[in-house]
Amino acid sequence: MADEENDNPMNELMRALAAADGSALLSAAEDIHYADLAALYENLNDEARDFLLKTIGPELATDLVAELPYPLIEGALDHFKPAQLRVLLGNLSDDDRVDVFQVVSEEAQVRFFSLLGPRDKELTRNLLKYEEDTAGGRMTTHVGRITADMTVKQAIAVLRRDREDAETLSRIFVVDAQGRLVGKVRLRDLAFNTWDTPIRDIMAEATEYTLASTDQEEAARILSRYDLVVLPVVDEFHHLLGVITYDDALEILQEESTEDIEKLAAISGEQSEVSYINTSATLHYRRRVAWLIGLAFVSIASGYVMFRFESVLAKAGVLALFLPMVVAAGGNSGGQAATMVIRAMALGEIKAGNALRIAWKEARTGLYLGLSLGITIAAFIGFILPRMKQNTGANFDFIHLAAAVAVAITVQVLSATVLGAMLPIAARAIRLDPAVVSSPSLASTVDVSGMLIYFTIAGSILNL
Amino acid sequence: MADEENDNPMNELMRALAAADGSALLSAAEDIHYADLAALYENLNDEARDFLLKTIGPELATDLVAELPYPLIEGALDHFKPAQLRVLLGNLSDDDRVDVFQVVSEEAQVRFFSLLGPRDKELTRNLLKYEEDTAGGRMTTHVGRITADMTVKQAIAVLRRDREDAETLSRIFVVDAQGRLVGKVRLRDLAFNTWDTPIRDIMAEATEYTLASTDQEEAARILSRYDLVVLPVVDEFHHLLGVITYDDALEILQEESTEDIEKLAAISGEQSEVSYINTSATLHYRRRVAWLIGLAFVSIASGYVMFRFESVLAKAGVLALFLPMVVAAGGNSGGQAATMVIRAMALGEIKAGNALRIAWKEARTGLYLGLSLGITIAAFIGFILPRMKQNTGANFDFIHLAAAVAVAITVQVLSATVLGAMLPIAARAIRLDPAVVSSPSLASTVDVSGMLIYFTIAGSILNL
């Protein structure tokens, strides 16, 4: 009801921006979620960005800036004066602040660092030690910490002091005097127990945790597997350093899926932080060109095989009809197998020891696929082609042609399927990302084998 | 330290299973997370499964069963006697119980339903009304509910009663007398305010929510975008029906990513609930064969073009050297563009109105890519080939050959890039999933245009 009477705050904000009406802009911005404000900001021109940021001020802009795509962050911060920047940088949560320092220029790093308070300086320096894509690089240190010898009352007093700081109080961790992780309690356990209950009596073992040096994707998978809201991050002496939260895990897993999808299509480089539509054509070009040129040169090998067998084609032109089919069937079936294996690896379903079992599974799958294709195509050739009554330039019967194509396509599909499944496993064995075995690079490789298989088998069955 | 002295519970469990030692098995299983137990269960033979389930009993088996891949659930439940099943089904959370009813056979549905208590019967019947892949189909009704006129003390009393039921108390929702959603509070707001504070004073507006009929992926994206732990699900009258939790969202987004990755590789059908390694070769075969056969027939079109232009190839055999390159470059560049657009659509970055802007962006990207490839290849042909001094069967100079290949590859890459970007948008416009535009189907399509472009351009530049 209320929604229909009032106006949509997003429309109001756009109107206020157009009219350069500061007070209307501020009141609309206060009603809009920072994720929506950040998405809007990305689509504004520089003048509008400046007016928006200056109007809402550093307090309201903090969450907006933290939500921005990385390449836009430095530009956004440059709209503020040092005194405002000091407020904004101080307001950022520690993990977001580290992200800012990791993505701005060196000059800005120095300038921004000088604006931090002494505690934030130390915290930021400590967090910057961890690699960007590790659990340590993604964690926040803002987490509820209590000790086992406290009572519920004491614990609540400690947490009350930190409550606006802590990103979540869904999990509160229990540490010993040295700060080592010894257990966990839920806020509900505190809220629903009497005030003199010792924490020791209600805490549970913290069985799930991760090292700060663990890869961020691995950490996100642990959180996801065990349905945790937060995953504690510890050092090698089991000191509690911080936590990875469920929203970080969501973001990490989405990024990793996007990365795998792009790699599978032979798109290289870091995925653009800006959305597809706001990424320049030049950047799109740069991420695609190297693979395209590399693959083009691989294709010369196929061309060379075709060139060498030109005489066979000249003798039996009808072979050309089925050449693209045999060749493409290898790329298609190999790509299917590679994709299944790469995704299963990404989901942690496959370990190195499974290679033989996978080869056997894909060999059977590839054989069934190859035979199905071969029989279908042989039937097509045997029944349809003779009835088309056109000059196919062939001096042999269609039964032999059907047999040649069927055998070639079966061999091509079987070998491409096994190769497609094995290459990602081999890539991981030599510590490469399995997803480098992109569908196009696999296709270009089995194009060569496809040509060889086709011409050799057809040549021998048809006596060419 | 403790870890090294004690044995790994997973090893203990395997030993106990092998020795059929029930009490050792039970004590090991109690120390293992249900997610790990479920993963283990998947790899056991039927006898071991039976022994495991019967030993741990229905209480401990509840979480294990909820975590199992769908096809294994009915079989697992059949290991229990009716009295045990009654306990297990009663212990399941409402959303997990609905999942069970959605995946078992009709006969089992009737049998299991008769074992439910009257309240669970009604709840299950209500939840089964929603489609499996909607917010309503994924939600749990176990959520903390209070009213605005309660005090903190009254609210805590209500929540205390429900606390073991509620999946999370990170968010507690405020409803009016009719059960309509009016606001939300955090447990920390209750824990850290005085007992006589009215809820009205500390509640916040519940601005993010979703309709029960909303697609599950859309609901998961809302939760992710706004960093929510739980997303309230309402009906069209704004009655609070339940919540989607962050762990459901994680699962949904991972499922959707896998689905897109598989579709892009021309793998059809529902993604297997069982892990890759436990999926039979026959099922792998069934999910791949239809596309493979379909694509093979599309390739006959390429074959036909090649067959018609056989005379051109016969006149200038050297053209064969670059035919696979020109053809494959189209599939590769088109696949890159399609992948970028499909992923951007899945992440909600692209709307229907953006089509023209995308076409313009991809036209420029495609032109840059085509020119880069064309120039590289022309240079290669102009400088390398003449120095190879072999009989290439050519009766024309290499400058003309280089020009012909360069122009053809530029046209092919430009047109394939734009086509690749536009097809997913067209698919969505006619309400198909954009990911049906798989890389292989796109490649098979632009293979045909590539052959035509190459032979036409080469024929005219070289006067063949």
Q: What is the makeup of the main sheet of chain A?
A: 3 strands, mixed
The spatial strand order of the largest sheet of chain A comes to 1-2-3
* Strands of chain A, total number: 6
Identify the CATH class of the largest domain in chain A: Mainly Alpha
Helix-strand pattern of chain A, N to C? HHHHHHHHHHHEHEEHHEHEEHHHHHHHH
Low-confidence spans of chain A: 1-5
Outline type of chain A: elongated
| Quaternary structure type | homodimer
Going by CATH, the homologous superfamily of the largest domain in chain A would be SLC41 divalent cation transporters, integral membrane domain
Name the largest protein-protein interface in this structure: A-B, 111 and 111 residues
- Give the count of structural domains of chain A: 3
Looking at the structure, the CATH topology of the largest domain in chain A is Tetracycline Repressor, domain 2
What's the arrangement of secondary structure elements?
Two copies of one chain form a homodimer.
Chain A: H1 2-5, H2 9-19, H3 22-30, H4 34-42, H5 46-67, H6 70-77, H7 82-91, H8 94-103, H9 106-113, H10 118-127, H11 135-138, E1 145-147, H12 152-162, E2 172-175, E3 181-185, H13 187-191, H14 199-202, E4 210-211, H15 216-225, E5 230-234, E6 240-245, H16 246-264, H17 281-308, H18 310-315, H19 319-346, H20 355-383, H21 385-388, H22 398-429, H23 439-461
Parallel strand pairs in A: 1-2, 4-5
Antiparallel strand pairs in A: 2-3, 5-6
Helix pairs in contact in A: 2-3, 3-5, 4-5, 5-7, 8-10, 15-16, 17-23, 19-22, 19-23, 20-22, 22-23
